Amino acid sequence: MEKNLARSWWKEGIVYQIYPRSFQDTNGDGVGDIGGIIQRLDYIKSLGVDIIWLNPIYKSPNDDNGYDISDYRNIMEEFGTMEDFDLLLSEMKNRGLKMVMDLVVNHSSDEHEWFEASKASRDNPYRDYYHWWPAEKGTPPKRWSFFDVESNAWKYDETTDAYYLHYFSVKQPDLKWENPKVRREIYDMMDYWFQKGIDGFRMDVIPFISKDTTFPELPEQYNGEFIPYYASGPKLHEYLREMNQEVLSKYDIMTVGEAIGVSTEQALDFVDEERKELNMFFHFDLLSLDRASGGGFWMREDQWKLTEFKEIHSRWDAAFAEKGWGSMFLNNHDFPRSVSRWGNDSQAHWYNSATMLQTFLLTMRGTPYFYYGEEIGMTNIRMDRIEDYRDINTLNRYETLSKNGADLAVFMENEKDASRDNARTPMQWDTTENAGFTSGKPWLKVNENYQEGINVEVQLSDKTSVLNYFRSMVQLRKNKLTLVYGAYTLLLKDSEDIYAYTRTLGDDRCLVLLSFATRTVSVNLEEVHFDKAKLLISNDEDHADRIKSDAHFTLKPYQAMVYELF
Ligand code: TEU
Ligand code: CA
Fold first, then answer.
1. Which of 6, 4, 13, 8 is nearest to 328 (CA)?
2. What's the whole-model pTM score?
3. Which residue of 47, 385, 428, 525 lies most exposed, with the fewest beta carbons within 10 A?
């Protein structure tokens, strides 16, 4: 038996990601909080999902919305207190929901006490918790930074006449994993949360933790394409194995790495069961599909193709055909909304494309991850004015471009499709002001389309809503292990309109048909042999035969259908 057929809760579970800042505010300060999540637990449970992944809720000065942590063992004041957290965890346990937290340990905040000590003098005990380059050695070799206005990952600090390393913003100095004390601190901190009873970690930019601390000049091929270099530090797997041995292996928990820069060839190095490192990770191939090269935030000029989309998912499925396990997702807090990006959020196609994409995630092998609001088809907000943006990534790039005299109108158009803020707008609960998210002024604009049916309240009472389709589709997956563990076979490989595949487990076989076309399309599936096909679900019921024996299928625009084959 293939190793990955071994059953486990984190393979069969469905994950719901919450960006706490935007989920539900309870005290009118315009910022979501832990109390808000508690208030909405019954709703989340009613979706049929099993695991909640929370974006960072630790103490933070919020330079990068919590990805800059100043105290790993405390809660961000805006979100609440440790008592609130403990209550959230126990309320989740009461409902049988598991909690996955974000682990951000490539870097800390510059306001963490370790960094404050580290920068105070060259000989303090925390000096070696971070990467320092003494100025007498000259300017350090080029390292790129994601959020720095000059793209420079080295920041000069006068106090000790040295540069420190920051792959992200100047307020996110990289921790020095090469120092065993740092690793011990991190493992103890992870243990602290596991002792509280959490069920796992999503590990932020985990492939970046190991560095060649001699900091050689970057090899030429990595110029501008530095991500694969950052992601393959010399001791990465040694550290992951050690982390597993020291902490992870002691608990029944799940881990999912944010594997930026990791290719299919490297996949099993992380998740082969025998290596005892991680359970699964998010790859970045889909996330870069509509982007210009370089792993950045510029949209590519031509339109992405369905054949490319299929190739990516088929290649990643094959990587885990016998060992390891994948994760399936179409958006998160760093990327635009799935229906706006991979579907079609025009009035005519919004419903079908949102539900078709849900069908896709729930019929592929790999654990499905949904991002809050995806269950009701939330869309990109597409803001016009730079003043409305909050994300450091958009704001700093705007600053860089204005300094360089670039065309800012082009940039603002790009951000309508690319900015991370598209995905961070407040959850749309009902038709009251600010969509029921806050009684105050929301920290980021609410998308006006909450008044046009994209809200929970309206969709709960509508049998044919995106939300209710989501619930039915979730139940379908839960009642059919074939959709979780079954082997995947791609059909109609060259079609630019239809994504079709079968899932097979023993004698049980399902056929999944997904249209990405804006017109009605017919296909012939004689390559799949079956006597009868029984329709299990469709997002466009009127246009499908419940039981059929011929191989001709007709799909309405963005229609999704799942059949059982006999
Ligand atoms: O993201 C890592 C990350 O590199 C992306 O945000 C990246 O900028 C983009 O994908 C470029 O291709 C993680 C978190 O998810 C993100 O929210 C944080 O800002 C970042 O790390 C720093 O902690
Ligand atoms: Ca609040």
1. 13
2. 0.98
3. 385
